[in-house]
Specification:
The complex is a heterodimer of chains A (about 250) and B (about 325). By secondary structure, chain A is of the alpha/beta class. Helices cover about 30% and strands about 35% of the residues of chain A. In chain A, the strands form three sheets. A nine-stranded mixed sheet of chain A has the order 11-10-9-12-8-1-6-7-13, sandwiched between helices. Classes of the chains: A alpha/beta (about 250), B alpha/beta (about 325). Chains A and B meet through helix 3, helix 4, strand 9, strand 10 and strand 11 of A and helix 2, helix 3, strand 7, strand 9 and strand 10 of B.
């Protein structure tokens, strides 16, 4: 089995969010970047578990500039066999999906994993776009995935429950909580990662269909109103009359 | 034309479907056009979407769309968009919608924005719309390049109001088969709304001390008609089921009311709940970071306050 894991780089969860250039660009100044948690903890680790149990290879792919090599090396340190970086600054989800689809068309895989979303733009879009470009089935927010013969058995999160289905390979899957447990790279993994192949591929031309034109920070939350613990009637009144949520 | 995909479950429209149609109608008014809806698979009285603003309902049914499959559903929706010459397609930002939004954008060669929570605007001839980014820590405005757009609509963005009458229903049969074979569907029991759709949520954290103490939280939720949620360590240690875990790594929600008892308010927790319209925090530590994100705070022992709050709600309801 050949597994491909799409990995992205995102600001660390506690990063301070600020903008520059007349609020049209994310301010990277002083921001620490990490592998997108869903890609790292769930998608990559599940691909590695399947490989360890049944054989195969795990390739990670990223659309980004050489600034991303550190997070790509981390994925190799966790256990991926090799990496591909498509050399471009990603400007939209469709841009990313287009680039990855072009690569996969000439280098096919059995299962293509993504994270459920990136924690910066919270899109959940790349997976569906990639599947459409490749004309493959796509299962989003998968909580479990097993390979049985030539098909995948996938359980995905739906509102108020879960749904389990069987799909012939190849398939595109986005991974959510439940799929696997985070792995911390060990010293040996980190040493080996330095020697694993990281192939840089040229991007294809693509013009975006949607673009961010400006950012804003949420308008300041009003000061919290402290309520006397002995007076819950007052809280209920405020929820009904002031907040109008009851 | 604005075309809205209205989701059903077991033949009944979801709350998100009415919201999406109402949003589609408001968007259509802004764009100076009309709004139509598309329903796929079994649905009870699809014409009722007219009451939320759909001028016409396209009801697609048949072996090709017997159960949800992103590929065949996206084909059906994109086909209807082409027939009706729709410039904007709206789906819900739900498990189905998240599967569809990217597929539809590629199929229709359209610009997509997922999780929108504002009405669109026309600026310099371009369709613009806002959504939350960085887990609610900022808002981004997107502009659509080209002439077609696909949005997925965040739940609870607007309150659907009923007016008008039922719409004309056009039936379309779709034959075919799906590549996805459904083996099993598990839905949680109970009357409360699923967490992503809930308007009222009561949540608790490690301050509860142990799973045996949850009755006071459940009682408060029952009294309100709210859904229960929890912080991550509570789900990780098995005090509560995993589907209740909210936050960065769990479910992201934006209910009208979020009550948090015994939760400190770590940034990763806030990432999933801070877009709630109103937040009530109950914590005995006056320095708990959650108070900074709250609208109302009660600084006291939750074992004391939660039952009192339940009683006060019962009294107000009586
Ligand atoms: C990458 C990453 C992702 C994460 N994702 C999530 C996520 O999705 N969701 C999430 O929730 N967390 C997440 N976390 C964990 C998060 O950082 C916090 O550790 C967690 O939210 C704390 O849970 P808590 O508030 O229940 O517990 P604690 O932090 O232990 O807080 C308990 C609170 O209860 C109060 N308390 C105690 N007893 C009482 C009482 N009798 N009456 C009233 N108040 C009382 C205390 O004052 C305290 O504030 C993540 C962490 C990381 C590193
Ligand atoms: N620049 C990128 N390179 C490779 N994969 C990406 C990139 N951006 C996003 N992805 C993948 O797409 C998933 C969903 O991203 P999004 O649609 O942006 O929320 C992520 O979890 C990654 O698996």
């Amino acid at each position: 089995m050949k597994y491909l894991v799409c990995i992205s780089k995102t600001p660390e969860t506690t990063a301070k969010i600020a903008f520059t250039n007349g609020d049209t660009q994310f301010d990277k100044n002083g921001v620490q970047f990490i592998l997108n948690p869903y890609d790292e903890w769930y998608a990559l680790v599940r691909a590695l578990e399947l490989k360890e149990a049944q054989g195969g290879t795990v390739t990670v792919i990223n659309v980004g500039t050489s600034e991303n090599d550190a997070v790509i090396r981390k994925a190799l340190a966790i256990g991926a066999d090799d990496a591909v970086r498509i050399d471009a600054d990603p400007t939209s989800a469709m841009f990313v999906a287009k680039q990855i689809s072009e690569y996969v068309k000439s280098n096919p895989f059995d299962v293509i994993f993504l994270g459920k979303e990136t924690i910066d733009y919270n899109g959940s879009e790349v997976g569906g776009m990639l599947a459409e470009y490749l004309d493959l089935p796509y299962v989003s927010y998968a909580m479990a995935l097993d390979i049985e013969g030539g098909s995948a058995k996938v359980t995905r999160d739906i509102e108020g429950g879960s749904e389990t289905s069987k799909i012939n390979l190849p398939v595109v899957v986005s991974a959510a909580k439940g799929m696997a447990e985070q792995r911390i790279p060990n010293m040996r993994g980190i040493m080996m990662a330095k020697r694993k192949p990281l192939n840089v591929v040229e991007a294809v031309a693509f013009s975006d269909k949607s673009k961010v034109v400006g950012y804003a920070l949420p308008t300041g939350k009003t000061e919290v109103k402290m309520i006397d613990p002995e007076n819950m009637d007052e809280l209920v009144r405020l929820l009904q009359e002031e907040a109008k949520v009851l | 034309m604005v075309l809205v995909y209205a989701e059903t479950q077991n033949g009944q429209f979801k709350k998100a479907a009415f919201e999406a149609v109402a949003y589609g109608k408001k968007s259509a008014d802004i764009l100076g056009t009309s709004c139509e809806a598309i329903v796929v698979g079994n649905a009870e009285n699809p014409g009722q979407l007219g009451q939320y603003g759909a001028a016409k309902v396209h009801h697609l049914n048949g072996s090709g769309v017997a159960h949800f499959d992103g590929k065949s559903y996206a084909s059906a929706i994109a086909g209807a968009a082409e027939r009706t010459n729709a410039k904007l397609v709206v789906v819900s930002h739900s498990s189905q919608g998240k599967t569809l939004v990217g597929r539809l954008a590629v199929k229709m060669d359209a610009g997509s924005v997922s999780g929108v929570n504002h009405l669109p605007e026309q600026k310099d001839g371009k369709l613009c719309v806002k959504k939350n980014v960085f887990s609610g820590k900022a808002i981004a405005e997107y502009a659509i390049e080209g002439d077609a757009a696909v949005f997925s609509l965040m739940g609870n963005t607007l309150k659907p109001e009923q007016s008008g009458s039922d719409a004309e229903v056009v039936n379309v049969t779709l034959d075919g088969s799906s590549e996805i074979e459904i083996l099993e569907v598990n839905l949680q029991q109970g009357d409360a709304a699923p967490l992503p759709e809930a308007e009222l949520v009561v949540s608790a954290g490690r301050g509860m001390k142990g799973p045996e103490n949850w009755e006071i939280i459940e009682e408060l939720a029952r009294t309100l008609g709210a859904t229960t949620a929890c912080s991550r360590p509570v789900a990780d240690t098995g005090w509560r089921p995993h589907h209740e875990h909210v936050g960065q790594t769990g479910v992201a929600i934006r209910p009208n009311l979020y009550i948090a008892a015994g939760i400190s308010g770590a940034i990763q927790h806030l990432a999933g709940v801070s877009s709630s319209k109103c937040i009530v925090v109950i914590n005995k530590d006056p320095e708990a970071p959650f108070f900074k994100a709250a609208d109302y705070g009660v600084c006291a022992d939750l074992f004391d306050v939660v039952p009192k709050l339940t009683e006060a709600i019962k009294k107000a309801k009586a």
